[in-house]
């Protein structure tokens, strides 16, 4: 009797913001490409509840989600500090994952043959070594921020020698492809160099671990920024650019299903006339900025569709939403990719999260940028100064004049058309990358090979 061989991939999430949903998206694509492989998806209970209230795993026979402990001490009450749950989680790693994996191996009788994880979880390299399997980290942000993180020591040394006065405007021309990036665009966790704190320490440990990975996956495509990609490939073993991970289906430019009626509302508007507003899964701008943003929209009478995370019946936006109900639609959640792909959307007002950025490129929609933290300022710089497919708000925060000016630029014929032409070009390159033999499709095949290369004999 011949022995049965089986691959079993453990996917480990960083359970905050859109990180789990991006990793799940990748797992689902892999599961479809390799139906004989079992995928176990490890995420905290709270994050799984949120994630699977929107996404269903029915029909994904080879993907199973497992809950792990989130590290919160007994009796813990959230203080309102967003870093607190992140620190609790980090302090409980890697133990929570090791325990989860051991239980699942016990339950299924299937040994783990590959570890696919959020790149933030640099400690996974040790788990992979203990298990004797390859580690494949997924960097869910962009190549520019990965490049900056990998050069943390060089950046800190250069800034220290530049002297305080020049530091903020110091550009990173000593790093290939990053000459437009300024020190002030960098994530604070990278700049502060304080590795006593859990999150900066986790990021620093990640950059020490990445060179030991079997391959590193990114949600981008080669032609997006070949200089940065080539530089990364010179420093890391195998960088697989498999994006854009999310691509609109050809028919979604006019019709799609959604529980809040976005499609029907968008169908009533003229081509490229609507502003889509969303600040991702974690953020709402502070009240004074919200007011400034709404004043500009109202003055300009721009039709808008807003994915609003907070309660729209509370001040300061309640009255604005009521006053502008003839030109606006506010919903708690949109099928964002389909909304962006709709022909009536002309501009995306965004916080510059990486998935949003890639979706905007995949749909060819220019952006108005109001970045907040992490990689977002760096992404804004690339959007505005390198690719010229959007514009930042003058002064960095929403003011009525700043927003009016940004709307004028993006919706105008001259500057707006230039941005639209630039983003159309990127969109075209993205389409080529995901074609049958395109660079992203080839890298994806490579990834499938890696995650299925090791098998356990049953
Ligand atoms: O109504 C909505 C709002 C959001 N989304 C989706 O939610 C995701 C949001 O992702 P992203 O734009 O990356 O924002 P965040 O969730 O804020 O992402 C975090 O993680 C990213 C890396 O993965 C970083 O680039 C960001 O700075 C960080 O905040 C996207 O896929 C959107 O399509 C929807 O589908 N509908």
UniProtKB/TrEMBL annotation:
Instruction: Give the matching InterPro entries.
Output: UDP_glucos_trans, UDP_glycos_trans_CS
Xref: SUPFAM superfamilies: UDP-Glycosyltransferase/glycogen phosphorylase
EC code: 2.4.1.-
Q: Which GO terms describe its molecular function?
A: quercetin 3-O-glucosyltransferase activity; quercetin 7-O-glucosyltransferase activity
Protein origin, superkingdom: Eukaryota
* One Pfam family, short name: UDPGT
Q: Which GO terms describe its biological process?
A: glycoside biosynthetic process
The entry's keywords: Glycosyltransferase, Transferase
The parts of the chain that form a coiled coil are: none
| Family label | Belongs to the UDP-glycosyltransferase family.
Protein name stated in the entry: Glycosyltransferase
């Amino acid at each position: 009797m011949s022995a049965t061989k089986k691959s079993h991939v453990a996917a480990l999430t960083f359970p905050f913001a859109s990180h789990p949903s991006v990793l799940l998206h990748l797992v689902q694509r892999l599961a479809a490409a390799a139906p004989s492989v079992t995928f176990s998806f490890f995420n905290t209970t709270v994050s799984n509840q949120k994630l699977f209230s929107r996404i269903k795993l029915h029909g994904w026979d080879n993907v199973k989600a497992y809950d792990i402990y989130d590290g919160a001490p007994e009796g813990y009450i959230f203080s309102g500090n967003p870093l607190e749950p992140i620190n609790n989680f980090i302090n409980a790693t890697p133990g929570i994952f090791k325990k989860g994996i051991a239980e699942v191996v016990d339950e299924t009788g299937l040994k783990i043959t590959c570890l696919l994880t959020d790149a933030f979880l640099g400690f996974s390299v040790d788990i992979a070594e203990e298990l004797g399997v390859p580690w494949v980290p997924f960097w869910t942000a962009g190549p520019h921020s990965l490049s900056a993180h990998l050069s943390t020591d060089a950046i800190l040394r250069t800034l220290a020698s530049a002297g305080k006065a020049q530091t903020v405007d110091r550009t990173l021309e000593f790093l290939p492809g990053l000459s437009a990036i300024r020190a002030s665009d960098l994530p604070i966790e990278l700049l502060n160099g304080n590795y006593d704190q859990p999150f900066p320490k986790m990021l620093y440990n990640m950059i020490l671990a990445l060179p030991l990975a079997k391959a590193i996956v990114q949600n981008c495509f080669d032609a997006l920024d070949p200089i940065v990609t080539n530089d990364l490939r010179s420093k890391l073993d195998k960088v697989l650019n498999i994006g854009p991970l999310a691509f609109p289906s050809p028919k979604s430019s006019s019709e799609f299903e959604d529980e809040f009626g976005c499609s029907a509302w968008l169908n009533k508007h003229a081509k490229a006339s609507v502003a889509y507003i969303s600040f991702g899964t974690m953020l709402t701008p502070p009240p004074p900025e919200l007011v400034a943003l709404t004043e500009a929209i109202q003055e300009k009478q721009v039709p808008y569709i807003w994915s609003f995370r907070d309660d729209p019946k509370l001040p300061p936006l309640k009255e604005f939403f009521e006053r502008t109900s003839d030109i606006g639609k506010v919903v708690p959640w949109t099928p964002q990719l389909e909304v962006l792909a709709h022909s009536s959307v002309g501009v995306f007002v965004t916080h510059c999260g990486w998935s949003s950025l890639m979706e905007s490129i995949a749909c060819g929609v220019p952006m108005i940028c109001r970045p907040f933290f992490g990689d977002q300022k760096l992404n804004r710089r690339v959007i505005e100064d390198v690719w010229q497919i959007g514009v930042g708000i003058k002064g960095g925060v929403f003011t009525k004049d700043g927003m009016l000016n940004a709307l004028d630029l993006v919706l105008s014929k001259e500057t707006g058309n230039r941005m639209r032409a630039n983003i159309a070009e990127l969109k075209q390159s993205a389409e080529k990358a995901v074609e049958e033999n395109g660079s992203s499709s080839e890298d994806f095949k490579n990834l499938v090979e890696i995650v299925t290369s090791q098998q356990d004999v049953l």
